[in-house]
Structure formats: C-alpha cells, structure tokens
Amino acid sequence: TPVYLLIEDRISNVSNMNFTDLDLDPLQVGGTVHWQPPPDDALVQFYIMYVAASKDGLHRSQMGPDIPVGTNLSTLPLEFDLDNYSEYNYSEILVYTKSSLVEQTTAIALTIFDEVRSVS
Fold it and tell me: How far is residue 83 from each of residues 27, 37, 40, 86, measured CA to CA in Å?
C-alpha cells in the first residue's frame, strides 16, 4: 500500500534591513542592524546575522548568537574592522531565518556603507 506525506515549503525572509554606521573611522563600522520580521514567521525560531564578502555569503562570519524571534535587531560592535579580522574584505550584512530544522539557504543582504568623517 502506498504511503504519502504532505510536505509544506514556506519562504520566510526578513525585509527592510537598515544599518547606520556610528564608527566614523575608515574601514571600521559599528552600530545596530534593524529588520522587519517575515509576514509568515510561524516556523521561524531564530534569526542569524553574518558579515560576508558577497551577497551570496562568501567567507561569511556569524556575528553573535542566534537571535530569537521577536527581536528584530542585532549589533555590529564599534571598531569592527571590515578588512583586518581576516584576509577577506567584508562588504555585506546577511540575515537568515532559522526553523527548528535548518537555516534558510538564501539570506537577505544589505551592503555596508562605511561612514567616514575626519577632523582637519
């Protein structure tokens, strides 16, 4: 007798990510990253934030622990070096959603704008 199982596939992406760099030194950033939760977050348990060298997650590095649903922000520490923590030049902030089973395969990306001000 054949047996079947219903598989439900949902897409749950964050949206409206924004970041304001509060560290005014060149090649250093710091500040809070905000996002809107997915419209359907019934299966989402956590958000995970990374910095990466590309929008597709090349050389990504997780920034802090998994973030519980209901918290729609995370922080890049002040004086976070975009190029000195490794040989990679980080240019993107990525936020993934995570269910009880797995992290999503494609993140929402935000290009980092390094605000620089100098005193003359």
Answer: 7, 30, 36, 6
Going by C-alpha positions, the residue among 47, 43, 44 that lies closest to residue 33 is: 47
Q: Which tokens belong to 65?
A: 């622990």
Residue 17 and residue 72 in contact, taking contact as beta carbons nearer than 8 Å:
no
Could you please report the per-residue DSSP string of 37-77?
A: PPS--TT--EEEEEEESSTT-TT-EE-SS-EETT--EEEEE
Provide the residue type at 36 as one letter.
Q
Residues 28-66 pLDDT 10s: 899 999 999 999 889 999 999 999 999 999 999 999 999
What contacts 2, CB < 8 A, 6 or more positions away? none
Place of tokens 């890049």: 76
Question: What does the alpha-carbon distance between residue 52 and residue 61 come to, in Å, rounded to a whole number?
Answer: 6
DSSP string, 5-23: ----------EEEEE----
Q: Rounded to two decimals, what is the model's pTM?
A: 0.87
